Amino acid sequence: MRYFIEFSYNGKNYFGYQIQPDAISVQEELEKALSTILREEIKTTGAGRTDTGVHAKKIFAHFDTELELSDELPRRLNSFLPPDISIERIFRVKNDFHARFDATYRTYEYYISLEKNPFTQESAWQHWKRSLDIDKMNEACKILFEYEDFTSFAKLKTDNKTNICKMYIAKWEQNGAELKFTVSANRFLRNMVRAIVGTMVEVGTGKLKPEDLRRVIEDKNRNAAGTSAPAHGLYLVDVGYEF
Question: Organism's domain of life (predicted)?
């Protein structure tokens, strides 16, 4: 039987979601807790893999077991897991339903603090030394919808079979001294959101004009885009499925 897990985590202490040698990951902690409680080796497949230091407010993974799972399992898992990983719910799905390949969209948020704030040092990019023009940044956002090949924002030397992504949402909002970038697409390339944010900030500071974003995208060269924004300001906030 196949089960889906909905969970969240603070990525500060992890080298991303996916298991890797000699580095602590969210997947490793999750599988260790599941295997301990269910008394069998459990392997999970996540909806995606976040980079080192990136957070997830809402993410899914699936796993298979012959067991009928108790409604108490989420509570028991939470007692085994470290404080920075939280299970929201576990539920049955069709046996061929896939956490990664059946996702219809993913939505991220990126936070920037426009003032020096000791309470958001680890949860938002502190960008208070230079002002940002949010109107120009939103003007640049509109250009993203003109394209589907985002090679310029892709991490170099990855195993991507395609760099084609369909953009659904891209916008900046300001709430007091906080900027929030919301971006949603059918899929994202590794490092893509942070590369877009870093380039948008160059637009906001006047280093680039909004229309320069067309040249950046059409170059299909990572060196044409801006430096990646820090990981700790990025959150995966939703993954969509047709359950």
Answer: Bacteria
- In the DSSP assignment, the letter for residue 41 is -
Domain boundaries, the chain: 2-92, 104-241
Residue 108 marked as a ligand binder: yes
- Residues 101 and 55: their CA atoms lie apart, in Å, by 21
Output the CATH code of domain 2-92: 3.30.70.580
> Cα 100 to chain center, whole Å?
13
Residue-wise burial string across 64-78, b where 16 or more C-beta atoms lie within 10 A, e elsewhere = eeeeeeeeebbeebe
The answer on pLDDT for 157 being more than 70 is no
Distances (CA, A) of 184 to 106, 108, 138, 172, 193: 6, 6, 15, 12, 10
pTM of the model: 0.95
- Give residue 49's pLDDT: 86
Q: Which residues contact 217 (CB under 8 A, 6 or more apart)?
A: 143, 144, 147, 149, 150, 152
Same fold for the pair 2-92 and 104-241: yes
pLDDT (tens digit per residue) in 169-204: 999 999 999 999 999 999 999 999 999 999 999 999
- Classify 215 as helix, strand or coil: helix
Question: What's the rounded Cα separation, in Å, for the pair 196 and 190?
Answer: 11
- Options 3.40.640.10, 3.30.70.660, 3.40.50.2300, 3.40.50.1950; CATH of 104-241: 3.30.70.660
